[in-house]
Design brief:
This protein is mostly helical. It contains three helices and no strands. The longest helix has 28 residues.
């Protein structure tokens, strides 16, 4: 996704707000290394694309995209309010 995409900007603001509480929103990206450090071996990592809307031609991916978009739209306010308000996100201070 392009760096200036509005969803990436939103993600950075949420991450900034959660950092106030000591939470790392990108912890999932470190899972492989954390598992390796814990002694696990034969760790397999797969990256898959997840559609965020009904644009795929494949019927199953289209349904996944609809569910993903619904989850984002329905949860956007709940995911954003805490980090933005209680996390004193700099979005409001700039």
């Amino acid at each position: 996704m392009p760096e200036d995409w509005v969803v990436n900007e939103w993600w950075r603001f949420v991450a900034q707000g959660l950092a106030v509480f000591g939470k790392d929103i990108d912890a999932l990206l470190k899972t492989k290394e954390l598992l390796k450090d814990a002694g696990f071996v034969n760790i397999e990592e797969r990256v898959v694309k997840l559609p965020m809307g009904p644009w795929p031609k494949d019927k199953n991916l289209r349904m996944v995209g609809l569910y993903c978009r619904s989850t984002i739209v329905d949860g956007l306010e709940a995911v954003s309010l805490g980090p933005f308000v209680r996390g004193k996100c700099l979005l409001f201070l700039t």
